[in-house]
Amino acid sequence: MFLGKYLAVLAAGLAVISGCSSKPSDAQASAPSVDDWQSRFEEMLPLLGHRNWIVITDMAYPLQSGQGIVTVYADQPYLEVLKTVVGKIKEAPHVFAHVYNDKELEFITEDMVPGIGELRSGMRSICGPEAESVMHEQLISRLDDAGKLFTVLIIKTPQTVPYTTTFFELDCAYWDANRQSALDALTK
């Protein structure tokens, strides 16, 4: 009888311990769904405003550690992520984006990276002709500065082509520099 009670207590204790285990269950250990990055992006977009940045990167882009920098992983093709982000920004009533691509991308040849022309063409088609080319290190420096005060959302993709980062510097969609200048003149 004592042995039966001992075994029952032991079994109950093991059940409690196994329930508190730090090892994730099979459900918890599964990879995040493809929509996780999109959900996170869609949750954040209404909170972002002028001076915030959104960046879509290739795989080798470094994990930045600045206070305001948030990084998510999108396990989808670069151009699909780019198209989704551009579409959502265009739908947003409160922001528009100044778009920048790495200037170095212009100088990569087909010999260096087969298929680069098609990728550049896809990027231009999605971002439009107003996308400006700026040296990568200059853009990184601007992100570092922005991340000190404002949120920078980095969406990293499995893209393995160098210098395929697209930067979106958000700005106010319903107020422009001309109106701000007029207001500034009135308040002086």
Could you walk me through the main structural features you see in this protein, from its secondary elements to its overall organization?
With 188 residues, the chain is an alpha/beta fold. It has a domain at 53-173: RbsD-like fold (3-Layer(aba) Sandwich). Helix content is 44%, strand content 18%. The protein has helices at 2-19, 26-29, 35-44, 78-91, 116-127, 136-149, 177-187; strands at 53-57, 69-73, 95-102, 132-134, 152-156, 166-172. The chain has a 6-stranded mixed sheet with strand order 2-5-1-6-3-4, sandwiched between helices. Strand 3 (95-102), helix 5 and strand 4 (132-134) form a beta-alpha-beta unit. The model is unreliable at 6-32 (pLDDT under 50).
